[in-house]
Amino acid sequence: MDISVQAFTNALLEGDHGRSLAIVQKWRESASRFHVYRDLFTPAMYEVGRRWQRNEISVAEEHLATGVCDFVLTQTEYELVKHSASIDATPKALFFTVENEAHFLGMKMVSILFRERQWNVRFMQANVPLEDLMKEVEKWRPSVIGVSFSLAYRVDELTKYLKAFAESDVEMDVLVGGRLISRYDFSSVGSLNTYFVKDLDELMTWFKTYKQTGRDVADGKSGTTSII
């Protein structure tokens, strides 16, 4: 069976859930979630995006590929959910995309990698209004918030969220991701506890730094293991 990125991309675009899942399962026989996400999922979805930008595929085909990718990505999380920490365990991490932002697969991968490290995770998916999000933050009080955006004209929207986080009495690190982070410097819109993460390799660096400070001690039970 061809398990290349190209084969995976084609399976996604063809709406082939079975073949897409089989490719990922074959990768997982010898690779961690991190490597599967970085070396298979990410380049495949970037290729889908490039084809859409070049008008080689329709919006409908792009949505189909995204749906299949989301399905397969969820399967990689299943065994972690079976051993998740209790809903009150710490540390806590909350993930979402800004309002009107529909691209969420990258942030979903990040949320799963946090769950793998025994974090108590809430993934709010896409398009979360600021007012509703802050109610959740004040109530649940996470140690980390992860936010994603993919289009330059949503920087103003992102700034509103970051300002609200800075003014909150909840002490938390803020991780900002999205495909534009590797192209532009957004540091001027963040505070000292805001980290702009351009890819999964930088996320691994953040994990190591966070662990060295001793801030990632969990009180929930989990059967998962680290990918580092």
Automatic annotation (TrEMBL):
Signal peptide start and end residues: none
Pfam families per record: B12-binding, B12-binding_2
Superkingdom as given in the UniProt entry: Bacteria
Residue span(s) of domain B12-binding: 90-220
PROSITE patterns the record matches: B12_BINDING
One Gene Ontology MF term: metal ion binding
InterPro entries (UniProt xref): Cbl-bd_cap, Cobalamin-bd, Cobalamin-bd_sf, Meth_synthase_dom
Record protein name field: Cobalamin B12-binding domain-containing protein
Species: Paenalkalicoccus suaedae
